[in-house]
Amino acid sequence: MNIHEYQAKEILGRYGIAVPRGRLAVSARDAAITADEFGGHVVVKAQIHAGGRGKAGCVRFAATRDEAASLYEEFLGMRLITRQTGPEGARVRRVYIEEALSIAKEYYLSLSIDRKHARIALLASAAGGGDVEEASQGAFARVLIDPCLGPTAHSMRALAVSLGLESACRRMFFGMVQKLYEVFTSCDCSLLEINPLARLSDGRLLPLDCKISFDDNALFRHSELLAYRDIEEGAPEEFEASKYGLTYVKLDGDIGCMVNGAGLAMATLDALLLRGGTSANFLDLGGGASKEAVRKAFSLIIEDRRVKVILINVLGGIVRCDVVAAGVAEAIAEASTASYALPKRHIPIVARFAGNRAGEGRSLLEAIKDDVFPIRFAETMDAAATLAAEAAGAEGRR
Ligand code: GDP
Ligand code: MN
To answer: Which end of the chain has a smaller Cβ tally under 10 Å, C or N?
Structure first.
């Protein structure tokens, strides 16, 4: 789970790390009032779940309250394209106003997980700021943190020296790293990045930007963090699916996939690719998927206008094929009722059931006679992928 910059700074503040004064503006008038409060000079920052905003012109200075208000108006609702958003960009729905500070030097600092060494890795550079992506590898110092010791004074001093921090600043640096490490471990972060970490003209060391990603698999023990979730960022289908215990990830293709188990789902995507098909989504029904979850999964797939063909690949184990079939049958019945908003179109289904109650599942699907969803069956995953890829090609030519 990713969060916004202003939320990340709020968390840093809770752990005793000084951050610039700032407020999320709720209107242009509010932006002006906030600017007054911060002495007129402010930085107006568009909040999206992607970096590169500075270069894209969405981190801008305002010298007066009116400028702050007009930047607020300009940013809000704008579709912002940065080098991290992809060509489709991201809509700006929140605007943050911060006191403007005078920067003497910008540094880069991040904590992430080094899987190979099973440690938290600290990455730092004196080449911080908007051009950090262009900096050479040699411009970064990397320290693996021993989980029993945490960041040590000795290693942090060496790091501070290599960054060229003057002695007065080194103690501040060590104090900050200790607290960041505490944030990282207490909140189960997967990434905590500060770019820039700024040395100000008045000598202070402050995070001017902050990005935090949390490990989704640990969110169950951080209900307090769920309030930071911005469901408007990211695909709404993915959020909808998560409510039913489904793992759904939108992809670029046109074959809707419904599979149980992440491994089988990945293998299914590969099998399709081998036959020239591309999947519209990754979907793992999960271990004990209920009929309702299956019905939801099927609806999510058919609501995706790009989907030309549906591939159902289920290996019954804990999940029963007949329960999956019943969920699909319900979704199809629901889709064919007049009240349903979908326009009628032709979406062939290819189903492959194996394992627990495969025969019963197949019989249930065979009983469905729906013009919109003609169903074909395959015995193996390979055969199913071939049929689905062919059908998608045929549908594309229709
Ligand atoms: P990003 O481009 O999305 O990573 O956005 P940042 O928050 O890092 O802002 C980009 C650049 O704007 C930074 O590298 C800073 O140089 C500058 N900047 C951001 N916040 C402040 C601030 O409060 N004061 C000053 N003087 N500059 C800032
Ligand atoms: Mn930044």
So the answer is: C
